[in-house]
Amino acid sequence: MTSRRRRDKQAERAALRAAADRLLAGTPLRSASGKLTATELLRESGLRRDVTYGDHRDLVEEFQARAKAQQCTPAAVQELADRNAELKKKLADATDALAREHAVTTALRRIIAELELELDRAREELGQSGNVTRLPAPRRRSARR
Questions:
Q1: What is the mean pLDDT of residues 100-120?
Q2: Fewest CB atoms within 10 A around its CB: which of 11, 15, 114, 143?
Q3: For 71, left (φ over 0), alpha (ψ -120 to 50), or beta?
Q4: 80 burial type by CB count under 10 A (0-12 exposed, 13-18 middle, 19+ buried)
């Protein structure tokens, strides 16, 4: 029979308070989103849900009240949101530019195909007329050493 380690409720409370402070300051360590929710508080503190709600519900409610009183997005999360919006705009601009380039490329391919057909027709007509004399190829001079 293995013995269970005794829980340190004071350390759990300290972990919850530190996690709440980090989330409210916008500097989370474990939370990916940094949202001011009880779920993110649990993730940030590293404690299990049953432990937190069983013995430390008051700290969760205190965090929720502080988050509601703050009534704003933490600075770090706001910076991420702004950067995300900026990157979305750059992506939209790049997508538009790519679409324009694709249209130009398509038009140029059509023009090239038409010019190749015209060149082939012109060569056929020249070959059939018979009154065009081909000039001899120029002689290459050997390089003097």
A1: 96
A2: 143
A3: left
A4: middle
- pLDDT beyond 70 at 55: yes
Residue type, 141: R
- Domain residues for 115? 73-127
Q: Give the per-residue pLDDT at 71.
A: 67
Amino acid symbol at 98: L
Other Cβ atoms closer than 10 A to 1 = 2
In sign, the C-alpha dihedral spanning 122, 127, 131, 137 is positive
Helix axes 9-25, 38-45, angle to 10 degrees: 120
Q: Is residue 51 part of a domain?
A: yes
**Same domain (yes/no): 64, 106:** no
Concatenated DSSP letters of 102-142? HHHHHHHHHHHHHHHHHHHHHHHHHHHH--PPPPPPPPPPP
Query: How many separate domains does the chain show?
Result: 2
In a domain, 23, yes or no: yes
Name, in order, each residue with C-beta under 8 angstroms of 73's C-beta and a sequence gap of 6 or more.
81
Residue 22 sits in the same domain as residue 66: yes
Distance of CA 97 to CAs 33, 85, 90, 101, 108, Å?
A: 32, 18, 10, 6, 16
pTM of the model: 0.48
